[in-house]
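FORM 7B: Structural annotation worksheet

SECTION A. Query
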Amino acid sequence: MRTFVIFLLFCLNLSAQNVNTEKCEGSLIEFGSFLNFNKFKTKQNAGVYAGYWYRFPADESKTHLELGTNFGYSKSLYEFNYGKNGLLYPIRSEEFVWNLGARMVKGYELRNNKIEWTSEFSLQTLFFNDGDIPKDEPLEKSDKENTIYIDTHSASFSTLKIGQGIRFWKNNVGIGVQASYLPYRLWYKQTAPEGFNTLSAEASLIFKF
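SECTION B. Predicted structure
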């Protein structure tokens, strides 16, 4: 988590130091489809996602930073054992994902069209129904008095998302594809089963304004 925060601050600092910049539309809205390839899926369906990204101005090398977020859902079915306190709990759940992060984007001109190469570094969270996983120890009575507790009946894994992609633009409408790697066991070696790391493929339709 600390590495992710430091990287975002570094990207913001680089963007702020750009002196010679060109006009760049400030916002992106994107819609797309994704497939996460995980051996613990017993049912594989393409998911859908939507998101918003803010585009910083490009520098003299036609490189710019984007910060944003995506939300996704798939009817794909995960079945695995969740480890907690030395015990294993069976999980059977559909796929809910939330992504928050940064992209470095390099632009190229091709005749009257524009091509962009994207490098994404973000934090992605996979949510799933928590089944029979026991809750953490309850708060002491004194801590409960001013606390509102909502049980969402869900648990989650968070990991880095490292991706490379390409986008093709015609005026303010673009299409893109990206491949990504998600090492869920980076922070969850005792919780996620061995082999839970995931490869992802994404296709998107993008509008900038």
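SECTION C. Observations
The CA atoms of residues 19 and 59 lie 7 Å apart. The longest helix spans residues 2-17.

SECTION D. Sign-off
Analyst initials: ____
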